[in-house]
Amino acid sequence: MLSRRSFLALSGAMMTAPSWATITQQDPNATLYASAYSLNKKEHFFGVFDSKGDILWAAPLSDRAHAPVIHPNQSIIGIVARRPGFYIDFFDVSSNQRIKRITPNKDHHFYGHALFTDDGVHLITQENHYTTGQGKIVVRNWPSGNIIQSYSSNGIGPHESVFLDQHVLVIANGGLMTHPDEDRKILNLDTMKPNVTYLSLKDGSIINQASHEEELHQLSIRHLDVNEQGTVALGFQYQGDIRDQVPLLGLSRVNQSHIEYLPIPEDIRIRFKQYCGSVCFDKSGEVLAISTPKGGLVAYWHIDSKTFLGIENCRDVCGLVATDNAHEFLLTSGTGVQLASNPVQNSNKMIKKHTNIHWDNHFRHIKT
Amino acid sequence: MKCFPKLIALAIGATTPLLVSAGQWEGPLNGIVSTVIVKGYDTYSASSKILQQQSNALCSSPSEQTLHAAQTAFQTNALDWQQVQWLNFGPVTYFMRYYAFEYWPDKKGVTQRQLRALSQGDPSVMDAPKFWTSASIAVRGLTAVESLLYHPDFAPTQSANHCRLLEKVTSHHFESADAVAKQWQEAKAQDWVFDEEGTGFDPEEVALEQFLQQWIEHMSAVKDAKLETPIGYNGRENLKLAEFYRSDLSLKAIQKNLQSYREIYHAGSPSLYDLAKQINPTLAEKLNQQLTQNVKLSLLLPSNYFHSDQHDDRVALAKPLVKSISSSQSYLASMVTQLGFQIGFNSRDGD
């Protein structure tokens, strides 16, 4: 709960209409990205970099973090702690201040991802009520952080969610039951049942839900993205045997009861090592990219034709965002690489390699 | 809380090369390839050939004597595999050969089930041109051979079908081992890394980085899957989870793995040990001594250590070795970091 003093201070910060100009003085049209990164095992940061790969702003963090969350119309960015996460830190880039820390309610933790509604009025988090293991979708007012609604995610382990539209949230219920006392140990490996749930944000009702066949019940649905046509792409992480031949990515739609698995050449599928990192559509929504840090590559598909387009080799790659150009993605890796890749033009361009930086799992495009 | 101003952020972002110089990794990389991998696969291929020949001899003249000869050939071959098992890289990754050479652990008994089906089915299907390259990895290698030679469900001295199956599996197994050996003879490690266009990519460095990552991961597997899990170090004992328990090779396999680690560390000129000594002599020596200590401690375990009717104090007996391997893991991870390698920031610690 905010104190009166901090609320007034925070409200004051909002009223000054924060902008990105502080860090984009030389180029008001600069494209910005936010990501957590580490220098080593002890030094961790949350940073903003531009399209040249230069870091323009950074704030120290106490530990590695997972995914950024970007306010849609203020120069405020947040970073969600890694699972089991107990804070989201928000920074006002224009005033160079950490303005707020949101923590989960008692017996809850975050999963590493969060998102703002389009109007920036609400913050949505995926949470684990770890005494019951039930997944939660929690809606908070921004900037107060007060919880105004809490829905069941209708599954266990809601890792990431995206908006299908302003009233429907698509949730990747990964299926993994964990308890922070046992870090990330999976407590329900034999019974896990991941699903993708389309949740009404008006009343918390299920609009649609799809899951795998029983034989694939250990195929955790972990990350997802949606394009403007309403196609939801899903990236999986298989908790079963490394040798099992299982699908690693799928498509879902709000009016479709099953998950459709995308074809993938077997020699590439093997390289994934049963693990998808980030899932991302390009600006046009025609091309899908899925990263696998374990496999050291990003794989691409043309969605309408479900055609596998090829791969971009990049060791320890995980971060993926669509650039402002159709079919083009920006990739970040634990080896410090920032790489632009266009699978339709078969082109790539190294933006920068920071040899002393490890880019963390996910990064986000900032709409300035 | 005040955040970093732009200048400091820029300073953090500035690129600072570590130890980079052309050909820097040539010594250890070439040394490991020639001393450990090429030689290791040559030996493995040769003993696979003997295993095939002894299987043929068994089937031509079934007897306890020829069965014993085939079992001996199997044991030699399975231990030769331990020399190269640490590296899932390059030619062994194609056609799932790595997992086919040894299908372990097999918690669901897939190998037995599929072997039974094969032995009861039409034997001519196994003669189809691509049968073995597309067959299940559970029946293509050492785990299947061990079952056919040791599992009570199979009797190659009495059943022509079982023996025929053994001949087919060992023939395919030899072809795979030989193919990997030949590919290593004809190529360099750098040929097997995936090119990262436009990223200032150094294939020599990347190859060695992958070797080091595989070594680190294999060391974990030896401690966890091969030793701790079957003896119930952190849970319930289940000795049937031990590697090659039917042929009584579980301990010998661990010993062979630990011996191969010293060879990796000292292969080439300069070796990883030599390079580590230049950067941190204390750490280099600690790792060296710990790798030797691992070998000694594994040799101190009684030869019947994994026998089910022996040793109520199995966990206590393992403790010194478990601790020693844990220390090696820490020293190896530190050495790798100090040499300037970035091992698996995301790939080994994601979500």
Q: In a nutshell, what does this entry contain?
A:
Chain A has 368 residues and is mainly beta.
How does this structure look, described?
The complex is a heterodimer of chains A (368) and B (351). Chain A is mainly beta and 368 residues long. Chain A contains 2 helices and 28 strands. Chain B folds into 2 domains: 34-187, A middle domain of Talin 1; 203-338, M75 peptidase, HXXE motif (A middle domain of Talin 1). Helix content of chain B is 62%, strand content 0%. Chain B has 13 helices and no strands. Chain B is globular and about 60 Å long. The two termini of chain B are 28 Å apart.
Layout of helices and strands:
The complex is a heterodimer of chains A (368) and B (351).
Chain A (H helix, E strand, L loop, with lengths): L3 H12 L16 E7 L5 E7 L4 E7 L3 E6 L5 E6 L6 E5 L4 E6 L5 E9 L5 E8 L4 E8 L5 E6 L5 E8 L2 E6 L21 E6 L5 E6 L7 E8 L5 E7 L10 E4 L7 E2 L4 H6 L7 E3 L5 E6 L4 E6 L4 E7 L3 E6 L6 E5 L3 E6 L4 E7 L4 E9 L2
Antiparallel strand pairs in A: 1-2, 1-28, 2-3, 4-5, 5-6, 6-7, 8-9, 9-10, 10-11, 12-13, 13-14, 14-15, 16-17, 17-18, 18-19, 20-21, 21-22, 22-23, 24-25, 25-26, 26-27
Chain B lengths: L5 H8 L12 H35 L3 H21 L12 H5 L8 H11 L10 H4 L7 H9 L9 H27 L16 H29 L18 H17 L5 H8 L1 H20 L13 H25 L13
Helix pairs in contact in B: 2-3, 2-8, 2-10, 3-7, 3-10, 5-8, 7-8, 9-10, 9-13, 10-12, 11-12, 12-13
List keywords for this structure.
heterodimer; A: 368 residues; mainly beta; Methylamine Dehydrogenase, Chain H; four-stranded antiparallel β-sheet; 2 helices; globular; disordered N terminus; B: 351 residues; mainly alpha; A middle domain of Talin 1
Number of domains of chain A: 1
Provide a count of the helices of chain A: 2
Strand content of chain A: over 45%
Helix and strand run of chain A: HEEEEEEEEEEEEEEEEEEEHEEEEEEEEE
What is the fold named in CATH at topology level of the largest domain in chain B? Answer: A middle domain of Talin 1
Mean pLDDT of chain A: 93
The helicity of chain A comes to under 10%
Greatest contact pair? Answer: A-B, 60 and 39 residues
Helix-and-strand structural type of chain B: mainly alpha
Task: Provide the domain count of chain B.
Answer: 2
Looking at the structure, the CATH topology of chain A is Methylamine Dehydrogenase, Chain H
CATH architecture tag of the largest domain in chain B: Up-down Bundle
